[in-house]
């Protein structure tokens, strides 16, 4: 082959090889308006996700509150049913509607809580100083707070209010009382005295002291002793002394 043709073929092939390897340079131009819209959409998406998480949290909290309220209602209904079942049936029994109103005093909150068979109980540590039978200012306020509702209930002559004092089994040493029985009775009388000052007739209530003889918890621990130091209020059914005329 002619040398000149060989040289020409080599040059053409080299040019083609170089041309095939070269990559075209493409420059991408982003529209600033589209870029801003994209950033805005990302921000709105983040806000929507945050609001969604907040709504889910509030929904969970609302569900928990609803369940808690349901359990609380069931608890009070159970206590009321138990208290009602403990009342003897017949003419000598406690009127259920009065018992319900009595239990509502505990449901309203405060130091007086629902006790056994529909009684109201409050810790003596809240009402009295150790070894004392004079109501503390906070204890006197607590008794005065429930007095109006008790007064309404006790206008019904079918019931009376019994105020019971209880202590733990710690022996009397320096307080000056004859015994825990004496201390518990004087504390019950102190509560009765304040209720009388609030307009409840003396003939509609009476006081009783039980000392350490009716514990609700073991006296072997400080917690148990604290539970046993208490004052309890109970409604008592009263049979008519004079038969009603026919």
Architecture overview:
The protein is of the alpha+beta class and 246 residues long. The protein has a domain of 169 residues: 60s Ribosomal Protein L30, Chain: A (2-Layer Sandwich). The protein is 54% helix and 11% strand. It contains 7 helices and 5 strands, in the order αααββααβαβαβ. Strands 1-2-5-3-4 form a 5-stranded mixed beta sheet. Helix 6 links the parallel strand 3 and strand 4. Helix 2 packs across helix 3.
Write the CATH homologous superfamily of the domain at 69-237.
OmpA-like domain
Quaternary state of this entry equals single chain
| Percent helix | 40-55%
Structural class: alpha+beta
Shape: elongated
Q: Determine and state the CATH class of the domain at 69-237.
A: Alpha Beta
Q: What Rg do the Cα atoms give?
A: 41 Å
Strand content: 5-15%
Biggest beta sheet attributes: 5 strands, mixed
Strands ordered across the widest β-sheet: 1-2-5-3-4
Taking the alpha carbons of the first and last residues, their distance comes to 151 Å
CATH architecture heading of the domain at 69-237: 2-Layer Sandwich
Low-confidence stretches are 8-12, 88-92
- Say what the CATH topology of the domain at 69-237 is: 60s Ribosomal Protein L30, Chain: A
Give average pLDDT, whole number: 82
